[in-house]
């Protein structure tokens, strides 16, 4: 079988989702909610639209995740004072209190994946993955559909 980066990344992604769903269950969080919280830990108070854009997910999916986190007490929502049509999303004290636990679980996943690898292999892996991520983030794949 030919080597496939996509296949390997897909396996890692799916297993990461399973792992996060298991370890975050006591916090009543899901793997789908974690990226929203992580981004808000960095940029609290942004709009749902900005959140969708940054996470590269559609507005409906963002609305569902935000609503779930609101219902669980991790977020609060306010109308943007400059644009009453837009909602700003803020972390609650409850979410902030869980920050260290969430990041600890994320680090445990990285530690699990890199356990047994020497430091050179780990650094090479991160360098290659970062290069691939930059490449895809800077590519507009809609143009690919117009070729040929």
What does this structure look like?
A hairpin with a 2-residue loop joins β1 (75-80) and β2 (83-91). The chain starts with a helix and ends in an 11-residue tail after the last helix. The protein has a single domain (13-139), classed as Winged helix-like DNA-binding domain superfamily/Winged helix DNA-binding domain (Arc Repressor Mutant, subunit A, Orthogonal Bundle). It has helices at residues 5-23, 34-42, 48-55, 59-71, 93-114, 119-137, and strands spanning 75-80, 83-91. Strands 1-2 form a two-stranded antiparallel sheet. Helix content is 61%, strand content 10%. By secondary structure, it is mainly α. It has 6 helices and 2 strands.
Q: Please mark out the parts with pLDDT under 50 across 5 or more consecutive residues, or reply none.
A: none
Helix content: 55-70%
Report how far the terminal alpha carbons are from each other.
28 Å
Largest sheet: 2 strands, antiparallel
Give the strand order, joined by hyphens, for the main sheet: 1-2
Q: Which radius of gyration do the C-alpha atoms yield?
A: 18 Å
Mean pLDDT, nearest integer?
94
Count of DSSP-assigned helices: 6
Structural class per helix/strand content?
A: mainly alpha
Binned strand content = 5-15%
The level 1 CATH classification is Mainly Alpha
How many strands appear in the DSSP assignment? Answer: 2
In CATH, the homologous superfamily goes by the name Winged helix-like DNA-binding domain superfamily/Winged helix DNA-binding domain
- Described by the principal axes of the CA atoms, the overall outline is globular
* Whole-number total of structural domains: 1
Spell out the helices and strands N to C: HHHHEEHH
Within the CATH hierarchy, at the fold level, what is the topology?
Arc Repressor Mutant, subunit A
**If classified by CATH, what would the architecture be?**
Orthogonal Bundle
